[in-house]
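[step 3/7] fold_predict: job queued, chain A
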Amino acid sequence: MSQLHQSNAFSVPSVPFHSADEYTDDPIDDCKLFVGGIPNEADESVLRAYFQYFGPVRSVEIIRNRETGISRGFGFVVFYSRISLEDALQQTRIEFFGRKVDIHKCLPNAPNAAGGAGGAGGASGHSGAGSSAGGSGVNGAGGGNGGSGANQQQQQQQQQYRLFVGGLDDTFTDEMIQMALTPFGEVKRVNIIRQTDGRTRGFAFVNFSEQRPVDRLIQLQSLNINGKRVVFGSANVKKNKGMRG
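[step 4/7] structure written:
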């Protein structure tokens, strides 16, 4: 029978033996673990107490609401050694205060490239020149197209970085999906498609800030989220037939 720790906060895990030489000091990106579904009763000390069974822990952070300080239900654990993270990932089930949590290895995020802004339109009533993106603005006309061009480009980027998520039931929420996929990259938006009565249609679309997490999740094909298997696929956007060439 598993030994319980800290007023039944968790069961002590079974961890394989490693010699001291195996616990190397590895880069943070190789040792960072995402923990989702954390109950409100569990704070950083509980997470540290549990995960230190796998080896020395560099840091523990539970993400909280900036205004209220209430936990948002997920956080990050950083080990010193890669082998500690690998041992943690071998656990088939981890519970805190009787609630199952999900863990995934965090993928290093590439720096976000800021897109260029569209050109400003010419001033009204003046023959002003807009920037190169918007073209020349004569009597306030023409230059303003740069702004709309930038908006269109932003919409295209959002569609390009979009992922299809299937296999959902009515227990899934936008926040639950965001917490589970955050380790793969910055999640900009989650949209669970619902029927008129509010029930899910079984799938959702997720927008990331870049393409890499989309490709990675499509490569994985599926993931266990909250005890259920969800599948990933490409979310190609069909062009409107009525668009002019």
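[step 5/7] annotate
Confidence is low (pLDDT under 50) at residues 110-144, 237-245.
The domain at 160-234 is CATH 3.30.70.330 (Alpha-Beta Plaits).
exit 0
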